[in-house]
Amino acid sequence: MSAAIEFRDISYITKQNRALLSNISLSIEEGSVTAILGRSGSGKTTLLRTVNRMIEPTSGEVRVSNQSVQSVDIIALRRSIGYVIQETGLFPHFTVERNAGTVLESSGIPKTERIRRSHELLNAVGLDSNQFAARYPHQLSGGQRQRVGIARALAAKPSTLLMDEPFGALDPLTRIEMQDMLLQLLKSRAAQTRTTVLMVTHDLDEALYLADRIVLMDTGNLVADLTPAEFLQSQQQNVADYVRAFHRGERNRAASRGQIRTREDRA
Amino acid sequence: MNQFLSQYGGQIAELTFEHLWLTAAAMLLASVIAIPTGIWLTRATRWANPIITIANILQTIPSLAMFGFLLPLPWLGERAARIAIAALTAYALLPILRNTYTGIRSIDPAILEVARALGLTGTQRLFKVELPLAASFILAGLRTATVTCVGIATIAAAVGAGGLGELIFRGVASVDNRLVLAGAIPAALLALAADAVLGLFERKLRTPAQ
To answer: Where are the coiled-coil regions (chain A) (predicted)?
Structure first.
C-alpha cells in the first residue's frame, strides 16, 4: 500500500474557535488523481494547503511520501510539491520562460538547464516555446496563463501536484482543452515520475472526468471518498444532493422533452 | 548681465555643487533608513501606523524651526552641513517609507502566496518578487523626496550650511533681485532635472502591464 499523501486525523481550528477541518483522515494513492468537491467554505482549500504547509493543522499529521511534512525542511518540501491556483499568480515582471523556471531558479539549477527544462515544459503544456518564452504574462490569454502556471508547477518534477480550482476561471471550451492537456501531461510524465494529483474543484464534471477518486467535503468534514462511478450512483444524501445540483439544467431540459437521459446512456 | 555672471558665475557653480551634495547625502541616508524600515513594516504591520505617523509629524515641522532644533545638539550642531543633512534626511523619510510600504503591500496577494508555496525563501521573495514589483513605487517616493529636499536645502543657508540658499538670503538682505534669482533659478532647475531623471528611471522600472 503506497500512500503518496496521507492525512491522519487532521483538524484545523481558527483562533476564533471555528473548526475549518474536523478529524480528516484520508489516504491518497501514488500516481492517482483525487478531486476534492464541496461547496464554498467546506474546507477543501484548507485541506489542500495543509499538504505544503501553507496552513499548519492544529492537530493531526500530514504525510507526503511516508514522511511527516512537519519533519521536512519547509522550503525543500514546497519545492517538491507543484502548486497551481485559480488566479495563476504568475510573476508579472518575469517572462513566460522565467515564470516556468521559477522553482528551478530558486533551487539554483544552472541557467542553461533551466531554460532547456522550461522550454520543454512550455511545449508540453501546449505553448510553442519559440513563440511564447519571451512574452510577459499580461500578453497571454487566461488559458495560456494557466498553462504557464501548470508548466511552472511541474518544472521541478514534483511527485505531488496540488491544484486549487485550476480551471475555475476559464470558459467551458478552454476548460475542457486544459483538462485534456493535463490528462495527457500526466500520462506522458508517468514514465519519469508518478505524479500524485490532489485537486480542489466544485465542478462535478471536472472531477468525474479527471479523477480516480472523488472526496466530498461538507463544513470541515470529509463525508465521502468514492470512485467517480460510485459517486454518481451513491444513495448517500449529501452526495446525491451534489450530483442532483449539477444536473438540474440537464434534467429540466430532458424532462421537458419527455425523455430522461442519464449520463450512462450517452457514454 | 554678462558682468554679473562673470562676477558670480564661479560662486553659483560652487554653491550648486554644494546644494547637490547636501541633497544627495541626505537622500542616501534617508534611503538607507527608510527602505529597510518600510520593508520591515510590511512584516510587522501593527507598527506601520505609528511609525508612518512619526515620519508624517517630522514632515510637518517648518524647515526653519527644524534647523533651529538641531542647532544646539551635540556633534550634529557642530557643523552646519551636518545639521542640513540631518534635517533634509528627516524630510525625505516619509515619502520613501510610505511608498516602500504601500508598494510592497499593493502586490497581488496571489503572487506572494504562490511565491511562498513554490518554496522561494524569504530573501528570494524579497529580492526577486517584492522589491522588483514595488520598485517603481519606491522610486516615485525617492523622486518626491528629492524634489522636496532640493527645495528645502535652500533654507540650509540660514544655519550657514551653504548651498544656493546663500545667494537667495544675500539677495534678500541686500535687496538685490539678481542675487535672489541667481540662487532661485539654479535651485529650480536642479529640482526639475532631478524630477525628470528619476521619472525616467521610474518608468523604466515599471513592470509590464502595470
So the answer is: none
Contact B118, B110 (CB under 8 A): no
Of A154, A160, A5, the C-alpha closest to A67 is A5
**Grid cell locating A266:** 450517452
pTM of the full structure: 0.86
Calculate the average pLDDT of chain B: 92
| pLDDT value of position B196 | 95
Q: How far is CA B24 from CA B46, B64, B92, B143, in A?
A: 32, 20, 11, 12
Cross-chain CB nearest to A103 (options B119, B121, B133):
B119
Distance from CA of B118 to the nearest CA of A (A): 5
Our count of domains for chain B comes to 1
Q: Which cell goes with A29?
A: 494513492
d(CA A118, CA A114): 6
Contact B120 A76 (CB under 8 A): no
Q: What is the pLDDT of residue A267?
A: 44
Asked if the Cβ–Cβ distance from A136 to B128 is below 8 Å, we say no
B208/A90 touch (CB, cutoff 8 Å), yes or no: no
Q: How far apart are CA A60 and CA B11, in angstroms?
A: 76
Question: B2, B27, B57, B1: which is closest to B191 by C-alpha?
Answer: B27
Q: ∠ CA A107-A111-A113 to the nearest 5 degrees? A: 85
- Which residues, given as ranges, of chain B have pLDDT below 50? none
Strand-pair category, A221-226 with A213-218? antiparallel
| Chain A residues whose beta carbon lies within 8 Å of the beta carbon of residue B129 | 91
Q: CA-CA distance, B166 to B158, in Å (whole number)? A: 8
Say which CATH number the domain at B187 has. Answer: 1.10.3720.10
Ranges of residues in chain A whose predicted pLDDT is under 50: 190-191, 266-267
Q: If you measure CA to CA, which chain A residue comes closest to B122?
A: A75
Domain containing residue B201: 2-209
Q: What is the per-residue DSSP string for B110-136?
A: HHHHHHHHTT--HHHIIIIIIHHHHHH
**Helix B131-152 / helix B2-43 crossing angle, nearest 10 deg:** 140
Could you give the C-alpha distances from B171 to A230, B7, B177, in angstroms and in order? 93, 14, 6
**Residues of A with Cβ-Cβ distance to B119 under 8 angstroms:** 74-80, 103, 106-107
